[in-house]
Design goal:
Largest sheet: none
Radius of gyration: 17 Å
Low-confidence stretches: none
Distance between the termini: 45 Å
Strand content: under 5%
Helix content: 40-55%
Structural class: mainly alpha
Shape: elongated
Order of helices and strands: HHHHH
Number of strands: 0
Number of helices: 5
Mean pLDDT: 80
């Protein structure tokens, strides 16, 4: 049990370092996403990537969780307040989405 716990901590630590390294090397590219749980920088608010993280999660589990979040956002804990406020009215949400996508990346903001 203690060895298993230590192995999980090492795995999580390695993943955190790999994530930080990848972000440091990643080119700056504008993202094109207007979603309640995605901020202006492309950060995603998903509990299993933060406080509920476990090295036991498979890639499949993480991708399915992302797919679910994108289809059914958590508007009670938004990173993009504007998108969350519009989500209930899909006609207005889609108008705002199309307007955002027409703007230059520097104009989009949150």
């Amino acid at each position: 049990p203690a060895a298993s716990s230590a192995r999980r901590r090492r795995s999580a630590s390695c993943l955190a370092r790999a994530h930080a390294d990848a972000r440091a090397r990643a080119p700056e590219t504008p993202h094109r996403c207007f979603h309640p749980n995605v901020d202006a920088h492309g950060n995603i608010c998903l509990d299993i990537l933060k406080e509920k993280w476990s090295a036991a999660y498979s890639v499949k589990t993480i991708l399915l969780s992302l797919q679910s979040l994108l289809a059914e956002p958590n508007v009670d804990s938004p990173l993009n307040v504007q998108a969350a406020g519009l989500w209930a009215d899909q006609v207005e949400y889609r108008k705002a989405l199309h307007q955002k996508m027409q703007q230059a990346p520097s104009e989009r903001g949150a």
